[in-house]
Design a protein that fits this description.
It is built from two helices and four strands; from the N terminus they run ααββββ. A two-stranded antiparallel ribbon has the order 1-4. It comes from Lactobacillus intestinalis.
Length: 91
């Protein structure tokens, strides 16, 4: 995810209120709602790439997985393809 400042992030003066609003929604309000989170990230990406012509994505990961209905507590990280198994229980 594009962020400004910090050791591994972009050093730039890019500023767009709509872009940062969408990133904020994706990271907080919609962090536990995958469909709304993805929509906010898509809106931010469109602002960044299509409207402002600021950056171009090189790679976007996707993680397909199958999950039986009797598995409970499985979580995917909202920030990438990391799976959390510490709360997993079999019903």
């Amino acid at each position: 995810m594009l962020t400004i400042g910090g050791l591994f992030n972009l050093e730039s003066d890019y500023h767009n209120t709509n872009f940062w609003k969408q990133i904020g929604l994706a990271c907080s309000t919609y962090a536990t709602n995958p469909k709304k989170r993805l929509k906010a990230l898509i809106n931010a990406e469109k602002q960044l790439i299509q409207k402002d012509d600021f950056a171009a994505p090189l790679y976007q990961a996707e993680v397909p997985y199958l999950l039986k209905s009797k598995v409970d507590g499985f979580q995917l990280s909202p920030y990438g393809n990391v799976a959390y198994y510490w709360n997993v229980k079999i019903k």
